[in-house]
Fold 5-carboxymethyl-2-hydroxymuconate Delta-isomerase.
Amino acid sequence: MRLVSCEIDGEPAYGLLVGDRIARLDALPGAAPDLKSFIAAAHAAGWPPMAAEADIPLDQVRLLPPIPNPDKVLCVATNFREPAREGKPEPEYPLVFTRFANSFTGHGQPLAKPDRSEAYDFEGELAVVIGKGGHRIPASEAMAHVGGYCCLNDGSVRDWQKHSTQFTPGKNFHRSGSFGPWIVTADEIPDPTVLTLQTRVNGVVKQRIGIDRMIFDIPWLIAYFSTFTPLVPGDVIATGTPSGFGSSRTPPEYLSIGDAIEVEISEIGILRNIVGGEAVAG
């Protein structure tokens, strides 16, 4: 299944994507209040059939991040075996940081380039959405806790990221990142290691790698994160980006207003955003 969060006539909604139409699941009797609550219940029930009519055209809604209100977004860096790392020892642990929910926007919505920086960068990633919560989850049981997958652009403001050894400022500018366009449920992707990630800027491929090249794979990450914090349904794990992002290039290639970024993952889809000006929260 493909699950979306969206706005319909300015009101929040969520539903099941069938072709190019949405079946509103939030309008069913006894519906869960949001998509993360729906995923928790549906995951526990083994993804039962959904009895709702797909009558809303996808192009008539505003897509939101699939989980607009995650309890937490946990992110990792330095997580791929690739030529750029040749000769370097593999890390014992990943570099970990967090993002806030309001640092993201949805598919088709403008990314917000901060006017306080000219070092705004892109990072294509696979995002894992937790479907079943847990604390101290063994790696051998971790995949049973996955609700689904989506694409993620970990938009990064590099100079602010490097103000100190802590990444928080550079990773959390308002609407500087995106994820979506939808969640593909885990039952449709039994083996995520077969997926391929590709990031394009203005149609030019900048990043490409197989998910099987991860140093810390999905079960390891779930076990590691759940050791220090209980995971809950709707939590998002951003699994890291390969080389090829702007600051890894010579000379650096940072984003400008009007640039189009596409993060494509096989079997999931394409997350597409255009860079716009800075978004100031009201």
